[in-house]
Amino acid sequence: MADPKYNETTDPQDAAAASPAAQTGEADGFAVLQKFQQENAELKDKLLRTLAEMENVRRRTEKEVADAKLYGVASFARDMLTFADNLRRIVENIPAELREPAASVVEGLELTERDFLSRLSRHGVKKLEPQGAKFDPNRHEAMYEVPDESVPAGTVVQVVEDGYAIGDRVLRPAKVGISRGGPKA
Known about the structure:
Low-confidence stretches: none
CATH architecture of the largest domain: Roll
CATH class of the largest domain: Mainly Beta
Radius of gyration: 40 Å
Largest sheet: 3 strands, antiparallel
Helix content: 55-70%
């Protein structure tokens, strides 16, 4: 008896392709292909995330190294500020009658002070200039208030001790006297 699905004019491979078993094989192959494509997409996503994380780590490390170079001398510089203050105090407190006979000593002290401050400057330490500026609690330390109606309230009118910063960080806030009683700034 002849199979109704197969006759002599039909190619045996065509008959096999038309069978339900062959269609199931194609479906399985298509499912496997989709699985591989999905896995490929997941691996690409993981790769891109890993590359982005590595780039972030590189940038963070570069910033930390730059900060270490800039701020690494901060502790030493903070300790040296007392030396700069003492040099200034020496020069300011030499009595007028001794300035003429000791002119070369006074000049040497002033030169030493300027040289020391320029060396600090080369390492990123800069002197704060608060005179006449609006009081900023992040950069200034208010020591007292001065009644003065001629300037806006909260303006720095006297500097008791110089302040210094390294980069954008304050090493030591300037100790200042601020105005009180004038119009609001």
